[in-house]
Amino acid sequence: MNKNDAFKQEVREWLSKNCPPSLCEKGASRGAGLSTRYLKGDSRLWLERMGEKGWTAPMWPKEYGGGGLSFAENLIFRKEIKRINAPQALSGMGLSMIGPTLLELGTEEQKQRHIPKIVTGEVNWCQGYSEPNAGSDLANVQTKAEDKGDHYLINGSKIWTSGAMNADWMFCLVRTDNSVQKQKGISFVLFPMTDPGVTRKPIKLISGNSLFCQVFFDNVIAEKRDLVGKVNDGWTVGKRLLQFERSSIGSSRIGIGSAVKSGLVDLAKKYRANEAGEIEDPLLRAQIVRHEMNSLAFMDTTQRIAEEAKAGKGLGFATSVMKYYASEMTKKKSELMVSILGPNGLGREGDEFSKEELAISERWLSDKAFTIAGGSSEVQLNIIAKRILQLPEAQGNK
Amino acid sequence: MAFTLNEEQQLLSDSAKDFFTKNMPISQLRELRDDNVESGYTESHWKQMVDLGWAGIIIPEAYGGLDFSYLGLGVVLEEAGRTLAASPLFSTCVLGGSALSLAGNEQQKEEFLPQIVSGELLLAMALEESANHCPENTRTLASKTASGYKISGEKCFVLDANIADKFVVVTRTSAEPGSDTGVTLFLVDAQSPGISIVKRQMVDSRNACNMTFSDVEVPASAVLGEVDKGLKILHEILNIGQICIASEMLGSMQEAFERTVEYIKTRIQFDVPLGSFQVLQHRSAQMYVEIEICKSVVMSALSCLDEGKTSAEIARHASLAKAKVAETFNLVSNEAIQMYGGIGMTDEEEIGFFLKRARVTEHTLGDIRYHENRFSNLLGF
Ligand SMILES: Cc1cc2nc3c(=O)[nH]c(=O)nc-3n(C[C@H](O)[C@H](O)[C@H](O)COP(=O)(O)OP(=O)(O)OC[C@H]3O[C@@H](n4cnc5c(N)ncnc54)[C@H](O)[C@@H]3O)c2cc1C
After folding, report:
1. Nearest-by-Cβ selection for B3 from A290, A303, A321
2. A260 and A337 share a domain?
3. Interface test with B, best of A280, A315, A380, A381 (most B CBs within 10 A)
4. Is B123 an interface residue toward A (CB < 8 Å)?
5. Is the ipTM of this complex over 0.90?
6. Which of these, B155, B179, B274, B294, could form a disulfide with B211 (CB 3.0-4.6 Å)?
7. H or E element in which residue A213 lies
8. DSSP-assigned beta bridge partners for residue B158
9. Which pLDDT score, from 0 to 100, does residue A25 have?
10. Domains parsed from chain B with CATH numbers
11. According to the model, what pLDDT value does residue B119 have?
12. CA angle (A282, A284, A286) in 5-degree steps
């Protein structure tokens, strides 16, 4: 038996002992946990076991609690997970954003203190970037951090902070120098949301959900050892984190997969079929085909970019290409779903609509966020124009 | 699936780029057009390409070819596309060569494949009969005679018919047009009595002809593949053609795009470069994204061929590649003219050549609608 087969065997055995079968059933909830605290029963057990093994973050180094798997082992591991239809055990900004950033740019002490708790799902993170006057123009952040010797004192407010209600810690862009060019006076700090100076006010979204908050800071303390990167060099750290964020948005929506699998065809057959059960409208067929072609083309592209990166000839800023394409495609897909369902896809609540119908209208509204959050589509196009095509600085962007 | 070039393929790509930019820039195509050169290509350049081995890139070594891979052929075509180089490479090697390799019997392969490799034999595929690409609808009739077959019918948009020594002719030997049997391929000598060829002056200044077959007598040995059962292999040949033309188009669109971006960086209006206007930046960035997507679908289609995937899978990739690439080439060539402004409308500026080529290639071997339709059929809806 070669090394890979042996590893496959090991994964298989471990999963059969440790993955609760109830989670793998058809129709079981697919949502990944954000933290052990909010999970009960089998989901909690699953996260605890995976976290202990380090397989919530399979490729992170073992010394910080990660799985330490190689590229090849990770592929095998993911295949095995898929084979038994096991849900993702953990998700969140710890895994997708601050974790990779700290691994690359954090101090040894920061890695030791923060990474293991991300892996086990003990600590749930939120992102304090946007402010009322710093959205696309993120470098305009005004939340102030004053140097008080062994700590920073933070005052101001963040907005659109996803998951802030349930978060334990925040990674945050703060202003440490007001006298220089805006990008040069920003620092990147970490602090616990349990600080008594933190107030969270939920914001209700067009979908009716309330996934994010405005967060207010009144003399909140961030320890000096939780400054990531150098003081006033937070913009560099912050931008690197955005690349991780974009690639996670770019890749999480690839699940869109083929239209056949993702249900566009089934939906069209259910709501728009003729007597013979066929999708009769050629224009609708064409719309579905185009979506299908684009999603396959996109999957080919993620694969190509991954291969190029592995071969060391990848283009930087590929994340902008992927984020732009994936988020636009996602939005178009949910538009198409609603248009297939017609009025049935536009329900707000109540038993007159099926669960599926309500989920589609909810998704249509919430998917609008993809082209806004994480750097809007327009911002991605700006980045491509400037960094890749090297076009001159745009008139208003100076 | 291979999404990056290996070292050999990279070298081939570099030398193709070098060859086409030095020897066959767009000014060559302009000369061929302005001098009304009947053959539509320059023999000395073709000879050089043959000497470089490119006529045999996908032909098996046993028949004198390089058997180098479709990804390899793809990079040569892509570079040819960048300079809009006119040569027999596509008709002779891609369409004709694949027809012989896939459908030919041992004797036909032994006789003709080495002649393709050595550049002695030029081929053309006589397929289309109307604006509607639909091989199933073939009406050109091949009826049995005492000694062989007699072919009668009309063909149109036959690429390179005016220079070919032999034609691969798609005919109907039984069943009704529209059915999926009864199609037979023949290898027909260009000198056969009863063939007439009229070259059509296309906007892209490349060779495309109308053909008439009136009682053209061919021996039974001229059949390529099996009688009545040619459709399946024909589609396999066409898949290769579609993927290869998409590679060429990919090169052309990248060149048109790069020229446009360069142009808006240098053209000054309102005291600033045009490229500093965000509306043009965003449209450029959107084209860039689409081109990146096209690179991936072309590479994955080429490697499907190299990896010998099933014909259904190859067909799906061929349609995906041809449709996406045609759509994007149309977009890029239209935007190019718009962003160049008045100068883009002049014959003197080369950018217009890309626009014209874009449309002709869109309609080569199935347009966007055809491929979207086929794609949905292949997926079963
Ligand atoms: C669901 C959701 C979750 C979010 N979660 C978080 C979070 O957890 N943490 C966090 O910090 N932030 C979060 N955000 C905020 C998000 O990052 C911002 O909304 C985003 O950066 C855009 O900023 P803005 O909303 O202020 O819009 P604005 O910047 O005011 O933009 C409005 C419009 O103008 C366009 N525009 C702006 N500048 C330009 C330009 N230079 N050129 C062309 N067009 C331009 C934009 O593209 C957009 O279409 C979230 C947002 C959403 C919708």
Report:
1. A303
2. yes
3. A381
4. no
5. yes
6. B155
7. strand A212-223
8. B209
9. 84
10. 7-121 (1.10.540.10), 124-228 (2.40.110.10), 231-378 (1.20.140.10)
11. 97
12. 70
